[in-house]
Structures are given as structure tokens and as C-alpha cells.
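Hi support team,

I've been running sequence recovery on a batch of backbones for a student project. Most finish fine, but this one hangs at about 90% for roughly twenty minutes before it completes. I'm not sure whether the input is malformed or the queue is just slow. I've pasted the C-alpha cells below so you can try to reproduce it. Let me know if you need the job ID as well.

Thanks,
M.K.
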């Protein structure tokens, strides 16, 4: 009988939760690590039907029925293999491929692929501990990696020469290029990864299917990854998932960070359930894979604007996967740092505090809307309403969707006229601005509304109400913008000086931290001085 190739059925198993599929047919209750219900294949009053999400199969201790997600649909819906696959593909929202039998040649090609990537990994591992790899080894050890961690994650070094092309010169070109390790140039094959610190990328079966290489000379991009191949797709690959899978079940959640070094350090410092997207923005496929393991996710991003935007995107992506028992949260690392730096300089307890202080997706989305729209103006409130409505429409559970809508409607009624911007990082109180400055800012916003859109983050941080009418300003658009920018710089310098004072009062502060903040103060002051000089000319 013709069959679908393994990659498609594996994708179905990745994207769909066995518990979700079975619970559409029978009620399930979680007890311990498994879910239990009355068997749909024989009559019983006491639940003996066990479903293991972690292992991907069900088993009835009453009648002995046993199988996976595909066999359940076949048996419960009385379908053949083809129709069961079609049913699951519709649930997963993916296109059905043509039925095809995997040929012996295709199977052999996959085996060759895995063997080549395995052999390449061993070469890179060995080179890391030679004179050639000394710079790479020094770098990774300075990042806090022990020999045990290097061995566990099979980290290595790709030299500047074409070592893979040379070592595997007896391998047919098409087999080598299929792995993405080498490419074809004008003068033959050449290595894709050269002078890179190498991180192997594992699939769900713990096989190495690709690599991520980090530059060591400061060149951009910092990371390059194997291009998509027959066995590797970046949008469907989560770094560290093979190591974190069991911990995600034990901890009853996953933690998502932005980079692979962050993920490795988190896994080895008390957060084994941590993973990261691979060299690309978070995708719906990543969320689907994580939710299949566990619908409780804590996203941990940098606290800067880029991190906030990434968090909003993650929040909108996760909405279709939410259930009323999902616990999706957002944590932020402040001060331009990342989890790796927090763990190295402040320890596991500081990172634990960041994770423990995470906010629910409901609060995060609400605060993001208030931050990104001027909700103290009618226009801003209208835009915020539309954004929220679009987000909530993504929630597939209509009862749950309705509950969230009611929650937000209550907040709109009670808070939008007195809301103040919330922060996820440590608050640093700045002096209030004087009434003259407040009136000038109001006049500028009234005269040039385009400036309010351009500088919304800064203006909303001032907590000024723009509802009341004020006279227009005589300043030109150019000078009005200079006024706003100069005020923004002054406030920024005030904040930096307060941060500096906190560091000076902190006995654990490092000289590097003080040097960094002093540099920021000098840079900001130079920009302000230049702007003031331009105003005086």
C-alpha cells in the first residue's frame, strides 16, 4: 500500500497534540504525567484509557487498544490511512502531499546525510581542542562553558580552510551539497562554514541535521545557519528542544529565549526547560511544536524596544493555540543584558526572580496596547480597540474568547481615562516636568499630530493628558521636533545619572558597568549639545 513519507507524518505528530485530538472524542483528566478517560473502543464506567503526550501514544488497560495519533483517528472514525491523514492535515492546517512510497534510494540518501553530518561534527569537535581552534575554545570558555557542556552540546570549530570539502573529497558532490555543509563555486566545492564556532542542530530523534556557526572576528551576521534542506527547516526547528523535551514535561512549561547560547546557559543553570528559535523570528510552527509538548510557555525577551516588539509578535502567534488552562507568560531582562549575562554576573537567583516576576499574556497584551496607542485620546482608543479585537479573534475557543473580551471591556471602562504606563523593568523615578513644558508639549501635539505618532513611546511615558484643548504653537515643525527630541535627551540623561547612582551604591557593581553607563551619558550629552547648538544658529 502506498504511504506518505515519514517527514509528513512526523510533521503531523509535531504540530498536533495527541491529547487535543483524543479529547475531541472523549473527556480526559490529567493524573500525574498522563491523561485518563473512558475507552472509546469498549464500554466501561471506570477510566482505564491512558494517553501519554510525552510518548505520543494511547493505551487501554481494559481492552488492550494501543496506538498513536494516526491510528486513533483511523479506529475512532472508522477511516482508512489516507482519510485519517487528510483529517489530521486539516486539523493542523497544512497541505496534503501526494501519496508516495519512499524509495530505497531516498532512504539511503537520508542515512548518508545523517552519517555525513555526524562525521563533520566529530571533525569540528576534535579541531576545537587543537591549536587551530584555540581562539574559538577561549571564546566559548569565557562565555562560561565548561568542558562537560561543550561535550554535551557537541560544540566544535570550523577552520578557515575547506576541511569538509577536503576530508570528504571521495563523496559525490550532490550528497555533500545536500547537507548544506559545502557549496559549489567557480573552482569546485568550498565549505559553507569557515572560521566559525559550531553548534550542531539536532532533530527530534537526536540526530544532527544542521549547524549554526558563530563568527569569532566580530563580523556580521553573528550567526549563520545551514540553509533549508530535505531534513532541516529553520521555521520548524527549535534549538535545544531535544535536550529540553523531558524537562518541559517535568516542569510543566517551556521557557523561550532569543539565542542559542542563552538557551544552553539556561538549561545548565537550573532552567532545563529552555529553548530558542533558530536564527529566525519565532514562527507559528515553533509555537505548534511547543504547545504539543505543553501549552504553558514563558517567553523571556530583552527589555528594549526590539524585545518588546518580539514579545508582542509572540503573543499574537500564540493566541490561536490558547486554551482556558494555558499559562502563557512574558518575562523581560533589563539594562541591555541577556539571560547569559544575568546568569554569569548575577547568578541563578537573579534569573529566577526575572522568570518568577513574569506577567500573564492577558496583562502583557493589555499593557502593550496602552503603550503603543495614545489611549488618552479618542483616535488612539479607536486604534487600540481595533488592534485588541483583531488579536482576540485569533482565539479559537469562543467561550474563552468571550471571557477575555469581557475582561478587557471592564478594563477599558475603568482604566483608559486614568491609565499610566507600566514597565516590566526596574522603575527609576524621574522628576516631574514643569507646567510650562507640559503646556508646550500639549501645544506641539495639538499643532503637529504626526509628531505624536513618531514619538509615541516617549510622549506616553510623560503621563500627560492630551484630551483638553490648548492653543497651537508658533514653532515650525522642524523646531517643534527639535524641542521634543531635546526634552527626550534630557530625560534620558537624567535616567542614566540615576542608574549610575544606583550602581555606585551597589557593592556588587562592576567597573565595566560603570564605564558603559558613563559612555552612554557622554554620548547622549554630545547629541544634546549638538542639538542645542543647532537651535542657537
Amino acid at each position: 500500500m502506498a504511504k506518505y513519507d515519514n517527514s509528513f507524518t512526523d510533521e503531523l505528530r509535531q504540530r498536533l497534540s495527541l491529547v487535543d485530538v483524543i479529547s475531541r472524542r472523549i473527556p480526559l483528566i490529567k493524573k500525574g504525567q498522563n491523561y485518563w478517560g473512558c475507552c472509546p473502543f469498549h464500554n466501561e464506567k471506570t477510566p482505564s484509557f491512558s494517553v501519554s503526550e510525552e510518548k505520543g501514544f494511547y493505551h487501554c488497560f481494559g481492552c488492550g487498544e494501543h496506538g498513536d495519533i494516526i491510528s486513533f483517528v483511523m479506529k475512532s472514525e472508522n477511516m482508512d490511512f489516507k482519510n485519517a491523514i487528510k483529517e489530521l492535515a486539516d486539523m493542523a492546517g497544512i497541505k496534503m502531499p501526494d501519496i508516495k512510497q519512499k524509495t530505497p534510494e531516498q532512504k539511503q540518501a537520508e542515512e548518508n546525510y545523517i552519517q555525513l553530518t555526524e562525521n563533520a561534527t566529530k571533525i569540528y569537535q576534535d579541531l576545537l581542542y587543537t591549536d587551530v581552534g584555540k581562539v574559538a575554545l577561549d571564546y566559548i570558555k569565557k562565555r562560561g562553558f565548561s568542558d562537560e557542556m561543550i561535550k554535551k552540546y557537541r560544540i566544535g570549530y570550523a577552520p578557515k580552510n575547506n576541511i569538509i570539502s577536503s576530508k570528504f573529497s571521495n563523496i559525490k558532490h550532490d550528497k555533500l551539497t545536500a547537507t548544506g555543509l559545502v557549496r559549489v563555486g567557480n573552482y569546485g566545492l568550498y565549505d559553507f562554514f569557515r572560521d566559525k564556532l559550531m553548534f550542531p542542530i539536532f532533530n527530534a530523534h537526536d540526530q544532527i541535521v544542521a549547524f549554526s556557526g558563530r563568527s569569532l572576528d566580530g563580523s556580521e551576521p553573528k550567526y549563520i545557519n545551514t540553509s533549508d534542506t530535505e531534513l532541516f527547516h529553520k521555521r520548524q526547528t527549535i534549538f535545544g528542544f531535544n535536550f529540553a523535551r523531558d524537562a518541559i514535561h517535568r516542569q510543566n512549561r517551556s521557557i523561550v529565549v532569543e539565542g542559542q547560547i542563552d538557551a544552553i546557559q539556561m538549561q545548565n543553570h537550573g532552567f532545563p526547560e529552555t529553548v530558542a528559535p533558530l536564527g529566525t523570528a519565532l514562527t507559528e510552527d515553533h509555537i505548534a511544536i511547543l504547545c504539543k509538548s505543553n501549552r504553558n510557555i514563558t517567553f523571556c525577551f530583552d527589555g528594549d524596544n526590539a524585545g518588546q516588539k518580539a514579545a508582542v509578535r509572540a503573543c499574537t502567534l500564540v493566541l490561536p493555540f490558547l486554551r482556558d488552562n494555558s499559562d502563557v507568560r512574558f518575562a523581560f531582562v533589563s539594562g541591555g543584558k541577556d539571560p547569559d549575562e544575568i546568569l554569569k554576573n548575577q547568578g541563578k537567583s537573579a534569573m529566577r526572580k526575572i522568570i518568577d516576576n513574569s506577567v500573564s499574556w492577558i496583562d502583557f497584551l493589555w499593557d502593550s496596547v496602552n503603550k503603543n496607542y495614545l489611549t488618552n485620546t479618542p483616535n488612539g482608543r479607536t486604534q487600540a480597540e481595533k488592534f485588541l479585537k483583531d488579536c482576540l479573534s485569533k482565539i479559537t475557543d469562543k467561550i474563552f474568547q468571550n471571557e477575555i473580551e469581557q475582561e478587557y471591556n471592564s478594563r477599558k471602562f475603568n482604566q483608559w481615562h486614568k491609565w499610566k504606563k507600566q514597565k516590566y523593568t526596574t522603575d527609576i523615578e524621574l522628576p516631574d516636568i514643569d507646567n510650562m513644558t507640559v503646556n508646550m508639549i500639549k501645544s506641539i501635539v495639538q499643532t503637529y499630530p504626526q509628531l505624536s505618532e513618531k514619538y509615541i513611546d516617549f510622549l506616553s511615558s510623560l503621563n500627560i493628558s492630551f484630551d483638553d484643548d490648548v492653543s497651537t504653537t508658533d514653532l515650525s515643525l522642524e523646531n517643534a521636533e527639535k524641542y521634543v527630541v531635546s526634552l527626550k535627551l534630557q530625560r534620558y540623561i537624567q535616567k542614566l545619572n540615576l542608574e549610575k547612582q544606583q550602581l555606585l551604591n551597589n557593592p556588587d557593581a562592576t567597573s565595566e558597568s560603570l564605564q558603559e553607563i558613563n559612555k552612554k551619558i557622554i554620548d547622549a550629552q554630545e547629541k544634546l549639545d549638538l542639538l542645542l547648538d543647532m537651535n542657537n544658529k
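--
Follow-up from support: It reproduced on our side and the slowdown came from queue contention, not your input. Confidence is low (pLDDT under 50) at residues 419-427. No action needed from you.
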